[in-house]
Amino acid sequence: MDEFRGVSVVKKANVYFDGKVTSRTVVFADGSKKTLGVMLPGEYEFNTGDKEVMEIFSGNLEVLLPGETEWKKIEGGMSFDVAANSKFKLRVKTLTDYCCSFIAA
């Protein structure tokens, strides 16, 4: 899907790590949420509440998922899932464009 129709966008940006990771929240008619954002190169750790699906549109990174010991290479066109109520680490190698979908329990 190249675009979302019939949505609301929260005007205030989500800004993390001194502006190196930013996103905007998109709210759908059914109340579900996604964020669309960009990440600059760097190393980051995120906490989750809901389960997340991270779609990477462009860029190059490595992810260390909860309970795993090996970093997984991810690039544009790939995605990965993150369990609810967990932490995951990213090593972003190049400017990365992403969409994060929150999956409520």
Provide a quick synopsis of the model.
The protein is mostly beta strands and 105 residues long. Helices cover 0% and strands 61% of the residues.
Task: Give structural notes.
By secondary structure, the chain is mostly beta strands. The protein has one domain: Jelly Rolls. Helix content is 0%, strand content 61%. It is built from no helices and 9 strands. Strands 1, 2, 3, 4, 5, 6, 7, 8 and 9 form a 9-stranded antiparallel beta sheet that branches. β6 and β7 form a beta hairpin. The radius of gyration is 13 Å and the shape is globular. The mean pLDDT is 96.
Alpha plus pi helix count:
0
Point out poorly predicted stretches: none
CATH architecture: Sandwich
As a percent range, the share of helical residues equals: under 10%
First and last CA, distance: 24 Å
Secondary structure: elements and pairs:
Blueprint: E1 8-9, E2 14-16, E3 21-27, E4 33-39, E5 42-47, E6 51-64, E7 72-75, E8 79-82, E9 87-103
Antiparallel strand pairs: 1-3, 2-3, 3-4, 4-9, 5-9, 6-7, 6-8, 6-9
